[in-house]
Amino acid sequence: MRTWRLYLRSPAAVLGALLVSVVAAMGLLAPFLYPDDPLGLAGRPLQWPGDNPRFPLGTDPSGRDIAAQIFHGARVSLLIGFAATLIAAAIGIAVGALAGFYGGAGDTALMRVTEAFQTLPNFLLLLLLVAVFGSDLRTITVGIGLVSWPPVARLTRAEFLTLRTREFVQAARLQGLGDAHLILREVLPNALPPVLVYASVVMAVSILLESALSFLQLSDPNVPSWGNLIGLGRNVLRTEWYVSAIPGVAILLTILGVSLVGQGLNDALNPRLAGGR
Amino acid sequence: MRVLSLALRRLAASVPTLLLILAGLFLLLQLAPGDTVDALMAQMGGGDAALAEELRRFYGLDLPVMARLGDYLWRLVRLDLGFSSIYGKPVATVILERLPATLLLMTASLSFAFAAGMALGVLAARRVNRWPDTLISTLGLVFYATPSFWFGLMAIVVFSVHLQWLPAGGFGDVAMGYTGLEAALDIAKHLVLPTLTLGLIFLAIYLRIMRASMLEVLSLDFVRTARAKGLTETRVVARHVLRNAMLPMVTLMGLQAGTMLGGSVVVESVFALPGLGRLAYESVAQRDLNTLLGIVFVSALLVIAVNFVVDLLYARLDPRILSGR
């Protein structure tokens, strides 16, 4: 409750929540507002926004409705961002919790693997995964999750390292509770807030990674995607630049919203820090 | 000397990480459907199973996985990255041809992001919570949210198509036959937009970190002492605060070397620069796994090299690191 009140006090955080809600609503309403296939032919190609009242955002080089693609793209972007973040958080929390709680040789080994993943440029690793396993939607989502977990693992491990020696954990241990209980019920809930805040960064990066991949036309071609549309607009950039411009604005506003929500959560969950800003 | 030995020790610690990466990549490739022989057979227009068997024996593909992993690592030690059937050259040669453009682009973007991020961060911290700070922080948020490839395209529309100030792509006008200084200027002109595009997100990150770090250092005791001595505020910031506030930025530089290399894939594709990133994209599009694997290997080496330099820098900026051991 208190966290919620603190969150609402910041106008930037409220704006962020608003932006994310609008994008989510666009994704949810897409099948009702634009029930036809957004990748199907809708009208004459390359009509400027406002030329034809049927297409408020114009049509792309293949004569497809840009507004329909933006609405359906919102759905895809958020779904991929959310699913990839869940995967990254699950791997990262599991690795970080085990490494931080037990320490020792297991910790060293897990951190070596984390370091190995961090040494590889994540976009290049994603390209490699796409080259090996193909580029359907599920592979890409899992791939983005697989290249995004190391920072989550490091953060979780750091939290576990400081929390595991606290008195409340020792008290629970003395009661004879098992390791699983200590990790899941005692330490994890206290380690979660900073991880939750960081999840917003992971989500923003996931959406950017997906859009970059589809911009390069290496993503699933059968799915309407903002990045894909920007890539298609490249061929007509000199004259019909709006084809690339419009989906870019959609990506920008979505990432901005997600970042603002993350910042608002951070300030609300760490009230002591917020005073210093 | 002690700086160097410390950095070298850190460098040695990255060897097991590198081995882990290579083993992981090798195993990943085992999962890929089809091997070299399948690709060769497809190129030859098919053949019978006996021929395939023969070829597999010839390439050593019939050996157990561990033996092949050892063989693979030994070849990498000798910098033999294999042969690219698409480019018809050894992978190492292809990568070396593409490396300079990427290194130039990365150095330029990093310098731009570092310098501008530092300047804006200092400016924001000195006017904290007043309009310059609000303006700079908002800009930082917007830059952070801008997809680099989109920014690049919009920059082309504005600066190349409408204003016609800067070229829209390429790494220099070969047709003009420039030499010496003229050629350097020509390349510089072609690199302005790519540098801004790649550096934008890092500028946003650096300015945010610099602002926070400045605010933290400004509240420390030694700054109060410096002020009590009667130093002007500019002198306090320049001589006492800046060096300490820069430490988190330097750390970040090492952490993000990989992200920047990843970003260069997209930026080089937008601006048609003949660099490593574009090569990575081309090899995915053409399923040239040998080349792609080579690029990933070289990128890992680059990231480790950047972190080596960052360690050296860090020890110079903060002598406590040396005395602490």
TrEMBL record, chain A:
Keyword vocabulary terms for this entry: Cell membrane, Membrane, Peptide transport, Protein transport, Transmembrane, Transmembrane helix, Transport
Residue stretches making up the ABC transmembrane type-1 domain: 74-262
InterPro entries in UniProt: BP-dependent_transpt_permease (IPR050366), MetI-like (IPR000515), MetI-like_sf (IPR035906)
Gene3D superfamilies: MetI-like
Subcellular localization, as worded in the UniProt entry: Cell membrane
Transmembrane segments: 12-34, 78-103, 123-147, 195-216, 241-262
Gene Ontology CC terms: plasma membrane
Membrane topology, from the record: Multi-pass membrane protein
SUPFAM superfamilies: MetI-like (SSF161098)
Family per record: Belongs to the binding-protein-dependent transport system permease family.
Protein name listed in UniProt: ABC transporter, permease protein 2 (Cluster 5, nickel/peptides/opines)
Organism: uncultured Acetobacteraceae bacterium
